[in-house]
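Example A, followed by Example B.
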Amino acid sequence: MQELTALDGALLIDKPSGPTSHDVVDAIRRQFRIKKVGHCGTLDPNATGLLIIVLGRGTKLSEKLMGDDKVYEGTMKFGETTDSYDSDGELVASLPVPPITLAELNESATTFIGDQMQIPPMVSAIKKNGVPLYKLARKGIEVEREPRLIHIYNFRFTDYREPIGTFKLASTKGTYVRSIAHDLGQKLGCGAHLATLRRSVSGKFDVADATPLDTVLKLTTAELEKKVIPFFKLLAA
């Protein structure tokens, strides 16, 4: 096996709102001229927070790191339903929000805790016959999606000021938090969508230890190397 270098490992990025996860991968690949760059778990463009970027031989561990549990924080807006289930989508329904307390909201949230089969939204990167679903959705085409088994460990609202609820959610990989927002809105009879989302934890890694993307792109290669989590440390994570 060829000797590992200081750029074989992972980088913890605090992703800003705007770029796709693939955009972040491309920016790092181009800036530092690294051939193999990948990410461990997609964040939607408007989502922020922890994005684990794997470099060089570190890409061999992407499946391992992608399988880790995640923790998210964010806000949901009640009374408005969108086609993408988040604030990026088109408004499809607007209804009055019923009087509801924080305690009542959390009572509804607890019904989502545990195992469940979740149908991915049409506006997603999942592929059907090789075509990403969001490309079909843009053409107004809706196709049947296979439900996926997910597990919600914890889902709790910490604040509610109509129509915005602030929440924290811990789940297994592959969970669409915007689908949870949509389903909760349907349960309450007024609709809802995910307004903001931030990933704070993935496995043993925390966004508190991540570096903002714009800061990373200003580093020299030597400075970048100091921020890379080595291959063998990832193996033990």
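Example B, a separate protein, is given below in the same form.
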Amino acid sequence: MAKMWAGRFQKEESKDVNDFNSSISFDSRMYRNDIIGSMAHAKMLGNKNIISKEDSELIIKTLGEILEDIENNELQFDYEAEDIHMFIESVLTERIGEVGKRLHTSRSRNDQVALDIRLYLRDQIDVLLNQILDCIVTFKDLASKHKKTIMPGYTHLQRAQPITLANHLLAYAYMLKRDYERLNDAKKRMNYSPLGSCALAGTTYDIDRMMVANELNFDGVVMNSLDGVSDRDFTVEIASAISLCMMHLSRFSEEIIMWCSWEFKFIELDDAYSTGSSIMPQKKNPDICELIRGKTGRVYGDLITLLTMLKGIPLAYNKDMQEDKEAIFDAIDTLSMCLKILKPMIETMKVNKDNMRKAAAKGFINATDLADYLVKNGMAFRSAYKISGSIVAYCIDHNTTLEELPLDVYKKYSDLFKEDLYKYINLEECTFKRNSLGASGLLSVNLQIKDINKFLKKNKNN
């Protein structure tokens, strides 16, 4: 395929240089965006009489046919082409001759690729947003089934206080809610058209940038032509939001890995979402979670690639910026794949309520409630804290629990202890009475679920 810029050169480009320079192997996925962007550009050129209406209409019609042929597999990409933009323009020119060559009037590949990647990422963000919403629904629905499932809450990976599985799951629903909002915000900041910036300095043609922006559902245009072709902030911002989302999925995956171990046995993954061992027949491995955990590092690498690629390049466009696509495409693909497989894995896993309850009964995780009992009967918290710690130490030495310790022993530490103490430190009582906003109690969990449902209803309709 002849190079569009061949007129300046006296020698053929080296094949190695062509291969090194080419991006069609990865930017071909933007074919639809490139064609739709070109259609809008051609329409504007015709409306402004920069090219004839007849030529504009023929270009738009032929671009539509090219799009249909690609999607019907009747037109294959030529991987000898430098990029998807050159490939489509070459096919257009082959089909309608000189008229096809008019399409690139008042446009550069610099603003063309800046347009294409914004259009492509906008579509992909919508896919991710819907997947995130689906996962939020999954966490919320499972939480709704486990409002009374008691488990130990942890700090420093040590049993700390009793909580409900519902509250634990809703923590991840809220993390994903923030991930949704970050991606949505990034999409809003990106949704401005760079087309018309041309190579870097704009154009002498009387173009209508706002017409093209409206045609492509942008909120406006990038107001500075240099910024229009050199900005890739949006790829960094999207990769950053994706990295945070992957971090949340990785944290949850780590917990699932622990929870399905024999040491915890809080949950059991469905056979369809587990793997076995080639040598140990008893094994049921949480490979999905381990891969999500591993792929999180890969996405972090994509973010660092983008930041490093951009940090040293002067205005305006530089070829370094071709490296933005593989990194941001990989980040998007990886998150999408992880969200897609995480949802059914959560939906099909079995929760072992009894094991969670037994774990919560151990470890003196009602010790804070013991201290609170004394506080509510008039003792200063620090004094109550010290007495409770001493009682825990006594229980450890005598191989007993707070629930089993006789009242006469309690009274050796304080006369404030009464018979109602045992109800106060009962595990269910400790858990369900916590109804401060955001806590594990039933009233609080119901408010959280209501809040998540409100968010889902608002955004499912968008």
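On Example B: The CA atoms of residues 435 and 441 lie 5 Å apart.
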